[in-house]
Amino acid sequence: MKPFIDLKKFWKSDLTSGFVLSLIALPLCIGIAGASIGNGSLSPAVSGLISAIVGGLVVSRLSGANVAIHGPAAGLIVIVQHGIDSLGDGDAKAGFQRFLAAMTIAGALQIITGLLKFARYAALFPVNVIHGMLAAIGVIIISKQVHIALGVTPAAKSPLGLFAEVPQSVSLMNPEIAMIGFAALVVMIVFMVSKSKILKKVPAPLVAVVLAALIGVWFDLRHTHHYFFMGKDFVLGENYLVTLPASIIDALPRPDFSVIFSGKSLLVIFAIYFVASLESLLSANAVDKLDLDKRATNLNKEIVANGVGNMLLGFIGGLPIIAEIVRSSANVANGAKTQWSNFFHGLFLAVFLFMIPGIIHLIPNAALAGILIIVGFRLARPSEFRHAFDAGIEQLVIFLTTLLVTLLVDLLAGIGAGLAMKLFVLIIRGVKFKELFRLQFEVKETENQVLLVPRGSLIFTNLLSLTDSVRAYTKTKSVAIDFAGVEYIDHTSMAALVDLVHGKQAAGKQLEMRNIDLLKPYSSHPAAARRA
């Protein structure tokens, strides 16, 4: 009953925010789908938009989040690309159909994870392994999209090879297509650096694609023709525009379960499940901090909702979805109050897809590439490197290890290398093997307060028992943690404790951290690792 009470109370603000979010999501979903699927579908645009539609109309009704927006995300582009390549053996369409089958199984695993109430484990994943992973994804996005923005098809496949080909693509660029890509890129940059309050209220991706579409109409991209520039002959045509089929429903591929139990497929299933779950739960936590009403996401309910959405999308030819942080932040900024804004965002996208496909077809692919270059830059911007360094030199090493191995091998290898480096750092700093997965701590309970006294090393693999105790006891009593017996706290644990303190304060509770100053931080960062 509560959802309909919320609808009656907040429908105006949620409807307005949902409409604005649909305008932001429209070009992003199409661009993300094109970058993810390539020629693995009759229409990547349809797959991308149908994913956001399901994220809005279905997942919003099941979600444990309050103002999160669900849809395809740039952080999953590499997962989809790798899955299609590894399962297709050169056949992109077959690869995508087998990827869809893997996605349905990954969605089922997400549902099981939520039902077993395991979602809380995501919050303890090493911070700079995550940041290194996302930075690598940003670099990979840029390496591919710069060629599309120039109107050139590169020969290389690896990120480093694609960057090496940039000078050649510049020399071979299609000038009018490059002008469209550059125009979209300039619009995104202007909106990103502008301090204007007016511009902040306007969806930059929408402005970029509208401008690009107008230029595309001027260049007559809908009809194949030649033009000469500086003595060279160039060709323009519909292949430079977003492709939409005559029948949208018929364009959606169906899953192929023929190789579902192969080793490659099992790796793809794990990659979708792990990365999509981790990103979605971390995004939900981040959005909670932006929520003006300071509401907390039910993470287990959230992961179940995402699992339902991903299972459904696997069967109807969509992309994996998460609670997407950028669109969710915009949702809060536009005054959304409840998950009905997510529902309305999906509803408006459905109207756009089924009612005005001819307008969507006018969007040039180069414009979407220009937008995605900025998306990639935001994931891998220089400040991410600085933030890792500020948290301690060892955090920068973990960040760079994850980034470089992801670029040189693949995403799962990068995550594994980052985790291995994290464990190596812990061993170097004296963490005992017996402490890796078990934290020793005492509970001293009085009538009004509970004192938790941990001993030894407090690290990301053993912190959960302590944080679970804090959450359990603060429902009824004041809680304090005495760190006098702690020898080492890693960065991830320190960050989790800082968030826990702030979360309790926002809820009107108190979490006291005693003797934390006895531990010397490795840097000036408030969540830096500490040593006795």
From TrEMBL:
Assigned GO CC terms? membrane
GO annotations under biological process?
Answer: transmembrane transport
Tell me the InterPro entries matching this sequence: SLC26A/SulP_dom (IPR011547), SLC26A/SulP_fam (IPR001902), STAS_dom (IPR002645), STAS_dom_sf (IPR036513)
Instruction: Enumerate the UniProt keywords alphabetically.
Output: Membrane, Transmembrane, Transmembrane helix
Where is it predominantly found?
membrane
Domain called STAS: residue spans: 439-532
- Gene3D superfamilies xref list: STAS domain
Q: Which residue ranges run through the membrane?
A: 67-84, 96-116, 123-142, 177-193, 202-219, 259-282, 303-323, 343-376
Q: Quick check: keyword Transmembrane helix in the entry?
A: yes
According to its record, how does it sit in the membrane?
Multi-pass membrane protein
Q: PROSITE patterns from the xrefs?
A: STAS
* Domain of life where this protein originates: Bacteria
The protein's location, in the record's own words, is: Membrane
Q: What is this protein called?
A: Sulfate transporter
